[in-house]
Design goal:
Layout: H1 2-28, E1 33-45, E2 48-66, E3 69-84, E4 90-98, E5 108-111, E6 117-120, E7 124-127, E8 134-136, H2 138-144, E9 159-162, E10 167-171, E11 177-181, E12 187-189, H3 199-233, H4 239-288, E13 298-299, E14 301-304, E15 307-312, H5 314-317, E16 335-345, E17 355-357, E18 361-362, E19 368-369, E20 372-376, E21 381-382, E22 384-385, E23 390-396, E24 405-411, E25 416-421, E26 429-432, E27 436-441, E28 454-459, E29 465-469, E30 474-475
Antiparallel strand pairs: 1-2, 2-3, 3-4, 5-6, 6-7, 7-8, 9-10, 10-11, 11-12, 13-20, 14-15, 15-16, 16-17, 16-18, 16-19, 20-21, 20-23, 22-23, 23-24, 24-25, 26-27, 27-28, 28-29, 29-30
């Protein structure tokens, strides 16, 4: 009888403890946090678009609010998730790792190599974005590449995704660099002495080598001319031979001068082209990290189908606009309007294109506060919408950094086909797919400013949007 009573008492105590835990968890659950970690990845197969994100889920373990502020502790875990780009609905979600399992940060996506989502979460990983089936991890990569066994670093900084080749560049722990195919997971050691340089830089190097060889040729011509001078002064050659040598040297000197000028002009032209390419690549790289503030995501001017287009204020019109250069829309009070102008090439023989802009013509009276052309994050160039040629304009609802960003699709005459208020003051990420504009943003003060609780997917044809809230796990 005593044993039964004791056992029954234990059951009651355990039930009370369990009930308290469930009650506490129920109270704390309203302080849980769930957000997407930008950037996102976009995939398309069989006319179906998918948005792939890493989800950070924080379970509140304690919460205290008082005069000194609000304090809460979280137990964090990471998931991966795919949403339908057209409907916003969740296609699949998969739990990955607890924060305690992750030795090195950041946790971040890398690229879309061969139709798979490549990301880093304590190790290099790849999953099918449609099924969330694993395609690659550290163990699988080492199994196919014995030379990498035990040599794959734990830190993200030793892994780089190369978008043009859709390969992952790995620096092994012994310093040897490998190119990992995202198609078959085969790793190939990089011959560092034969690494292909940037094509423009390679051309510049060749021209400078030819220029140096030209200098040597000129030196040999000059030495020969000097020798004839000496022989003539010593009366060892005739005056006719001396004058013939002088005429020949002058012809050689003129030829060398023309060739030197051509090499010099070509080098200067290519260096200008290289600077433009490097500037654009820096902006693309900047978009991958922190360069997503409003003034970085749009530009005031563009060219399309051989014409110049600009978002200009009255103050801009007071300045000469003869040369074309991309520039940010940094004046928050600028009331910009849509202009068009003819452009001509300054010099058609140059590789680095320089455009001359004619007098701008105002297309209509519509005002876009701090308005500019939205850039394609993948190219750092303005988005050119097809099917009916035009642009995506972004502008502020009101002055200041808190002003919501409004988007408008306009045609080449400046007519707005639709407008959409994102109700976001900044974008955490955005992707132009050709048919849709996908935006990640944050309108929830409960999560960190760099994370995103909101997915907006806009149909570029009609401006209709679907919204999914990662925090609440619901469509809005």
């Amino acid at each position: 009888m005593g044993k039964r009573s004791l056992f029954g008492g234990i059951i009651v105590v355990l039930a009370i403890i369990a009930g308290s835990v469930f009650l506490l968890r129920g109270c704390l659950s309203k302080y849980d946090e769930r957000s997407a970690l930008p950037p996102a990845l976009y995939f398309e197969k069989d006319n179906k678009g998918i948005v792939f994100t890493i989800i950070q889920y924080g379970i509140a373990t304690s919460y205290k609010s008082g005069p000194g502020g609000t304090f809460k502790s979280m137990s964090t875990s990471y998931y991966i998730q795919s949403n339908d780009a057209a409907t916003g609905e969740v296609i699949a979600t998969k739990e990955m790792k607890d924060n305690s399992d992750i030795k090195f940060h950041p946790v971040t996506v890398m690229g879309t190599g061969n139709g798979r989502a490549w990301f880093f979460m304590n190790e290099l990983l790849a999953y099918d974005p449609f099924t969330l089936e694993k395609f690659a991890d550290k163990e699988m990569i080492e199994a196919k590449n014995p030379q990498l066994k035990g040599k794959m670093p734990d830190e993200k900084r030793y892994y780089e995704y190369d978008q043009p080749t859709e390969a992952v560049l790995i620096t092994a722990t012994d310093g040897i660099k490998y190119t990992l195919s995202t198609a078959n997971l085969r790793a190939t050691a990089v011959d560092e002495d034969a690494v292909a340089k940037n094509p423009v830089e390679a051309q510049i190097k060749l021209l400078k080598k030819n220029e140096a060889a030209l200098e040597e040729r000129f030196k040999s011509y000059y030495d020969r001319y000097s020798e004839f001078n000496r022989l003539y002064s010593e009366r060892k050659i005739t005056a006719a031979a001396y004058f013939d040598s002088s005429k020949k040297f002058n012809r050689q000197q003129d030829t060398i001068s023309e060739m030197k000028k051509k090499y010099s002009d070509d080098i200067r032209d290519l260096e200008g082209l290289g600077r433009a390419d490097k500037s654009r690549q820096r902006q693309i790289d900047n978009f991958k990290t922190s360069g997503k503030n409003y003034t970085n995501i749009c530009t005031a001017v563009d060219t399309f189908h051989g014409k110049w287009y600009g978002m200009l204020s009255s103050a801009d019109l007071e300045k000469p606009l003869t040369d074309f250069n991309y520039r940010p829309v940094y004046i928050e009070t600028a009331r910009n309007k849509f202009y068009r102008a003819a452009v001509t090439l300054k010099d058609s023989t140059k590789k680095a294109v320089e455009l001359q802009v004619a007098e701008p013509e105002k297309m209509n009276e519509t005002v876009y506060l701090q308005g500019g052309f939205l850039l394609d994050k993948a190219t750092a160039l303005p988005i050119h919408v097809k099917s009916e040629d035009g642009f995506i304009i972004c502008y502020r609802e009101k002055v200041g950094n808190d002003g919501n960003i409004i988007l408008a699709r306009i045609d080449l005459m400046g007519k707005a086909l639709w407008t959409y208020n994102t109700n976001l003051s900044n974008f955490a990420d955005w992707i132009y797919t050709g048919k849709r504009l996908i935006i990640l943003g944050n309108d929830n003060k409960e999560i960190s400013s760099g994370d995103a609780n909101l997915l907006i997917s806009i149909d570029l044809q009609n401006g209709k949007a679907v919204l999914y809230d990662y925090f609440t796990k619901r469509l809005r």
